[in-house]
């Protein structure tokens, strides 16, 4: 028989129920029949049964599972069968097997059948249907008894007798002890059957059990229901699952119990109390922690079974079972997690149920439990696994540390003096509640129990254990990157050290925590930690650090007013301490004390001249809660000279450095260098890159212009650094303010200084001294500067308008920059007078004095004294670095100069001619420079100033003729922007010619000439005697600006001098065109005759005396060339279009020329032009060669005409082509020349005449112009 | 319901933190600050694989004896932390989720305000009222 089964049997014999609480628990299978046979088969059976898994299909939709079956084979006894109502499952026999190897019918009939029947009856009596009959056959036996019936007959008989419908309840095992394939097969069949039947039994019996259990659970609302009873029932199920190695299912049972209990507690809290629960509310008397070392804590289980368990007992037992199962399931980390939940939960439940707990008892329980869980986990995992899963266990460590700490505080182990008697009593009570150490750990060197007992035994031991735990926790937190948690534990540790008067140890932790809070900007935590740190540093005697922290705290609005005042007072007390070493000063950063908000310059552009006054107004926001008496506030200034920089010159500075004089400082939040928050905003700009060749877009993007600001290294906790590298002895440039009171909030402090040396002054540092303490702002940022300059006196003269016009009074602005020179009374500007430019004195003119920043200071009238040579202007008294401005009227008189220098100075005329040329080129006004020499009072040298005047008018003349009558036209063009009134126009013959008369034909005496317009004046020339060859004329017209009303000044008129020559009419040319004979009108395409008649109007005169004149027999003739030209191509000239005629020089001599012309178009056609030239013979050419210009000019013409002469020019169009050939032929030959008449000498009376041409009838082409 | 509600910027400084006035404010500040350890851990554990369908609700960050701390992180890494009294067992996961969703919606409204600078501390009456309503119900 199985030894295990035997053991079970033995126990069974005792009074106690046969429960075997070990892992060796297996489902029970009873064996009846041939015990010897079974014993021989047992080894194979127990070995083979679990070898192959079997699928277990479950009820209630639970997932099927593969299961390895094992069994405990026990000899069949009737007592094993459960009685009615017995719910025990562990001892429940799931299957009953009857073994037999009977092969003899006789034997079967006599003994075996009866035996089986008896067995069956017992089973039936107990409603057990899970049975199996095994018939073992062996060849050996068969051989012995050869006369036996065929083997099947016994089996058939058994089947027939017992298994009326369940033939599968009888199996045959053939030759089980032989190693043959047949026996193997029969084994397999048997085992499969066995497993199937076992599982069937499980399903059936467990299902029934579960149903019963559920029924029991449903009764939970009934008054008599007991949780403990139910607990025991469901635990039975859990045990069975555990026995079947279904740990998951087992765990579910416990979890359900857990949830059920929790729900009851919650309901109890909500007022829905169950009677049975009140029992769990009994006061806690024992707090000896969890016990996880045994699979089942029998002590606690009994308490539950006997309904004597407290809440902690129940929870402890439940958790220990859960823990065991979880560890079977290889889920130790879940244990730690559940443990933490359990501990928190228990604490809450005790509170909720209002269970009375002695102070510290729970702390002990939690502490012991934490360590127990941790040790249990350590016991089942190796070091590497634990290290990798610190995050799961660290919570327990931390919780244990926390609990030990509170125990320490409770038992007076943290105080400096050690525990008092009350503390000791409490400790004794707590230790009593722990009870005796459990036997399983009693012999171990370390256990949670021992640890706690030791820790509570003495101050030193407590410190050791607390520090060990804390350090371990901090290390673990740090290792897994939970820095914040680590810092928090560190802070607890610091608190502990502070209690133990060990501030130097505390400081490290506080600083570390502070750094973290600062970096992440948690204001309240920063404040709190700073407060602790201040306390710590005070104890340590770190005066500087303490004062700094105090200043931060005094300005911290998270503290109460009183606290702030207290810290502020600390600072003041120290500052005012009278100590022997006066020299030693404490330097603290300023930002915690006060903040620089704005800075205001006066003058606003922060530029002053040497000796000038500059004031700087600071706005300081005092962070202190009370008014502070400040000894001195100093601004340290850095001085630099940049002489050669144009940007530092007075001119540039006063003009360009414009600002409102207020500099705002960025708001720095005290003590919160929120790294990212403090950064300046991104300055992003669009960027386009275009290809240089075709300007197409290559790249578009965004650039950040302040990358250097954003990406620079973050200064970590710069506010905590001690200010270093500070040079306070830079005494040369310090602005100071003494004895102030800084009120809380905004203060305005004004510094004033007198500028000394020119240069740039940069405000570097701000230093506030309070007694021995100096608060220093190391860098004033953004950069604040002011400039001091010196300036030489200067005079500037410039027109008030764009340009000065000659002839009218114009204003000129004088600007005197005094610079370092101050104007005394009697200082004058001496102007040398020029005749052409008198200075007009207006008694009302005023001089205005401005400061260098263009602020008007005063106004005074200007006194001007004029002598013949010199005009002296009395300057008003003005201090240095001011500007005096006044305006004077000047007038340039161009004609005056001209008339004065007329005839005597040729250079002047040249100037004028040059001006004319310039005017032609630019179409702008002629200019004249006028120089003035000025003597200034500040200099021994004269200043020469050039003023440029523009002449507003341009004049042209022309001679007009009508037959013999002559007219002179003068055109005046206004080039300026102004509008003028013209009057008293006059044309005079300057030569003495009395018989000549100029009759004006101009309607008005006064005319307005607008800007950019022209006006024409005409005179008729009349004469009585013979005309002179040339006529000298002088045109003059008075002008004044049309807008100015006052005519007080007598302005000089504009004059224009010119000469006309050879203006008398010599020839009269008349052209006539006649239609062909017999027709009324000219027709296109038909030839018409053209008649040119040239008539001499005067007898021989001076004008005719030239080479062309030939004289013979008292008759004079001259050679003329005529030319008919039609530039508009209206006419085709047939035959010669030009020719030379010999003209008698006598009045009324007429020469007529005929030629034929053909109109090319219909309509009114203008007559072709007829031109007349003087024809000079070639031999006279040499004498004319002196004037190169005219020779060349005439040469071209002569060539052209020559060609016309010689070539038979039958066609007009051939002229151009012949030209080049002919010119080559005649090169080098003396050539006749043509000379044109001057404009008045030939009068063409047919100019502008037209003749009607009608179209010919056969003209098929009709040209229609639509306009 | 909640005893403390905090909104924490991506950079881990508080944008908003408010606790029931009856209790020590400082304690909650410490609790919320420490919870950031777990938030960071959870965020990094979530990884980048499932950015789209990432669960914003982080669940229970850590329990203490007296309080439960829950976390929630928006896609822009702004964290919401809610501290709930442990004794308040009526509060289930689903309620916590819906409270966080409400908080998120209200926060989104703030972000939509053109006068609000992202990253500034939250001073909004609407948000205050909403937070109050979440804290009121039990007190």
UniProtKB/TrEMBL annotation, chain A:
Subcellular location: Golgi apparatus
Residue ranges of every copy of the TRAPPC10 Ig-like domain listed in the record: 794-949
Source organism superkingdom: Eukaryota
PANTHER family, per database record: EPILEPSY HOLOPROSENCEPHALY CANDIDATE 1/TMEM1 (PTHR13251), TRAFFICKING PROTEIN PARTICLE COMPLEX SUBUNIT 10 (PTHR13251:SF3)
Organism: Gallus gallus
Residues in TRAPPC10/Trs130 N-terminal domain copies: 24-335
Domain Trafficking protein particle complex subunit: 437-553
Gene (name only): TRAPPC10
Protein name: Trafficking protein particle complex subunit 10
Compositionally biased intervals (Low complexity): 1209-1220
Annotated ranges, domain TRAPPC10/Trs130 C-terminal: 1032-1254
Region listing for Disordered, in residue ranges: 897-916, 1202-1231
Keywords assigned: Golgi apparatus, Transport
Keyword Phosphoprotein appears in the UniProt entry: no
Keyword Transport attached: yes
Biological processes, Gene Ontology terms: early endosome to Golgi transport; intra-Golgi vesicle-mediated transport
Pfam families: Foie-gras_1 (PF11817), Ig_TRAPPC10 (PF23604), TRAPPC10 (PF12584), TRAPPC10_1st (PF23036)
InterPro entries attached to this UniProt entry: Ig_TRAPPC10 (IPR056917), TPC11 (IPR021773), TRAPPC10/Trs130 (IPR045126), TRAPPC10/Trs130_C (IPR022233), TRAPPC10/Trs130_N (IPR056913)
Gene Ontology terms: cellular component: cytosol; TRAPPII protein complex
Broad class of where this protein is predominantly found: Golgi
TrEMBL record, chain B:
The keyword Cytoplasm is assigned to this record: yes
Origin: domain of life: Eukaryota
CDD domains: TRAPPC2L
Subcellular location: Cytoplasm, Perinuclear region; Endoplasmic reticulum; Golgi apparatus
Keywords annotated in UniProt: Cytoplasm, Endoplasmic reticulum, ER-Golgi transport, Golgi apparatus, Transport
One cellular-component annotation, GO: cytoplasm
Residues annotated as transmembrane: none
Coiled-coil segments: none
Record InterPro entries: Longin-like_dom_sf (IPR011012), Sedlin (IPR006722), TRAPPC2L (IPR044760)
SUPFAM superfamilies found in the cross-reference section: SNARE-like
Pfam families: Sedlin_N
GO biological process: endoplasmic reticulum to Golgi vesicle-mediated transport
Keyword rRNA processing: no
Family: Belongs to the TRAPP small subunits family. Sedlin subfamily.
Identification of the protein by name: Trafficking protein particle complex subunit 2-like protein
